[in-house]
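In response to reviewer comment 3 from the previous cycle, which asked for concrete evidence that the modeling workflow produces usable outputs, we include below a single protein chain processed end to end. The sequence was submitted unchanged, and the resulting structure tokens are shown without manual editing.
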Amino acid sequence: MSSDGQFPTRENCDPSDPEEAFLWMLVGLPGSKGAPLLLPIQHLRAVSRRLWDCGARPVADPVIKYRPPRAGDPHWLVSPGTWADIDDPDPEEVFDIRQFVAELPLRQRQQLAAALGLTGTVPDEPPTPMLPVTTAVSTEATASNDPPPLFDPTRRSVKAVLTYLRRADAEERERVLAIERHLGKARPAILSRYQNV
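The workflow returned the following structure tokens.
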């Protein structure tokens, strides 16, 4: 293994060096729940040397291979990775952002929405059912120079969102659909009508 601190793999470990010959095999040990390396590299080098000194030598080609944690796995520091049959194809590194956002806790989705400038798009709590309420009709008119609040599809029915999207310009339609896809419920009744947006 190079001295620059690379993660030990079969490719970067020297099979003729007693401290590296078995080092790559001590990654993601069976039953480990946590980091891919149960001990610091110095200790694993000592274990590799002990195996060498006891007469072990890597002579046969391996029948399994190590797969490091992937992007969708829990954090790489606490995910041990997996071992698979040597002939199994490696999975594609595809990161599904929609699934990632959908699995975030509510507070983190709200922080993400705020960071993207989409404040107010993720409700603090599920909306309570609306009951009909009668109020007095006011004859007073009010006016404001403030811009109207942005349309939030997460707080509207499918029918209301579809009606709004029919009237919205292309840029606004794209904004509302992005919220629906990534921060809302991703309702098929809405998204199926605007697949190319």
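The chain is about 30% helix and 5% strand. We consider this sufficient to address the reviewer's concern, and the full set will be provided in the supplementary archive.
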